[in-house]
Amino acid sequence: MKQAVELKRVDRQNLLFGHDPENAMAFSEVLVNIRQLEETQRAVALFRSHPEYAVPNFTIAVRDLVNSSGAARANKT
Is the pTM for the entire model greater than 0.85? Predict the structure, then answer.
C-alpha cells in the first residue's frame, strides 16, 4: 500500500473500494463465509468424484449440509 501511495496510484482521501467503514468492519465475517463456501465446494467435488457414495438426491443432501453448518456457525456466536 505504501508504494502504491508513493507512486500516486492510490489516493488515501479518495479510495474507490474502502470508503465505507461499515463494510470494512464486516469484512472478517464475509471472509469466514467465503472460506465456508470454498470448503463446501471442495466437499461437493469430493463426493461427486466418488459415485459409489451417492445419495438419492445429491442437491438436497448438499443443501442440508450447508444449512446445518450455517446453524452450527450461528450457535458459536
Answer: no
